[in-house]
Amino acid sequence: MKALDATWVDAMAGFKQSGYRPKHTIKLALTCGEETTYAFNGAEWLAKNRPELISAAFALNEGGSGRTDGHGKILYQSILVGEKASQNYRLETVNAGGHSSVPIRDNAIYELSDALLKVRDYEFPVRFSDTTRAFFAKAGAVRADDLGHAMVALSRDPNDAAAEAIVSKDRTYHSMLRTTCVATLLEGGHANNALPQRATANVNCRIFPGETVEGTQAALVAAISDPGVKVTMVPPIRPVALPPPLDPKIIGPADELVAKYFPGVPLVPQMSAGATDGVFLEAIGIPVYGVPGGWLDPDYNGMHGLNERRSVRSVFVGRDFVIDLVKLYANAD
């Protein structure tokens, strides 16, 4: 986000300094709190309290990007069209406890552990949106390997189990095909020499567009199938992710610019397996699109890790691309 935020600021400063006068109004909103869902969220606050400040025909956001083969060759550029909703759930087990010298099988930690293994093994069903269907068809077509063939086959037939098995070996593609839930935090017991009276875990779910937080909660309860495990939603409760349309007025200019900057490289619509604050804008009727222009390697350049990085060329080419793209949209009839 540092690179893209700097690009937005650079663009607006450049427009002002050059005296640029677009046909349409350009607004910039830089907000806090996306990664701290338990705290204040600026995009959510604006959407709920000052929607007039961000009212727009559409919004540009993070999420779009090119992907390389890991050796510098850009395979495709993507424009983000839709994302999942992030929602946390708390799993809790309780027990009467007692002294650890006289253990019993009815143990809060064991019961929670069994539940988490069921969450690990549960696969949500394959789902497709217009965006993901187009992504797998186009991104698969640029590959000449078994994965590429399987991506194309799955886009044609979501029930192709053989193709799905190949595609799902790629962690990112597996997540793009369905809702996913994973344990991220764990806590239990109160003393080294006592039976645990309580054990809890946080399960973070990335919910496929159109699916609800309540439906995902019900799926977890059914998969765990243990009335002794309480499953509750952890605030904030996210709105349903609404996929924006594959609007030619949005896709067309981006496609045109990709052809100019990256000859022979296709533009592919892509749904984020993660989630952004775009979900709050979509909830008030503002479709959100993630801009292409930069690029990442297959390991996503250590995103969210201690070795998170971007190549200098990706940042500066991406900056020029984004500024040109904003002008195309701002001057459109």
Q: What is the topological layout?
A:
Elements: H1 2-18, H2 42-49, H3 51-54, E1 59-61, E2 65-68, E3 74-83, E4 85-94, E5 98-99, H4 108-121, H5 130-141, H6 146-156, H7 161-167, H8 171-176, E6 180-188, E7 194-195, E8 198-207, H9 213-224, E9 230-234, H10 248-261, E10 267-272, H11 278-282, E11 288-290, E12 295-296, H12 312-330
Oligomer: single chain
Helix and strand composition category: alpha/beta
Question: How many beta strands in the DSSP annotation?
Answer: 12
Q: Which runs of at least 5 residues are low in confidence (pLDDT < 50)?
A: none
Instruction: Give the termini distance in whole angstroms.
Output: 30 Å
Count the domains: 3
Shape: globular
Average residue pLDDT: 94
Beta-strand content estimate = 15-25%
Helical content band: 25-40%
Largest sheet: 6 strands, mixed
Number of helices: 12
Order of helices and strands: HHHEEEEEHHHHHEEEHEHEHEEH
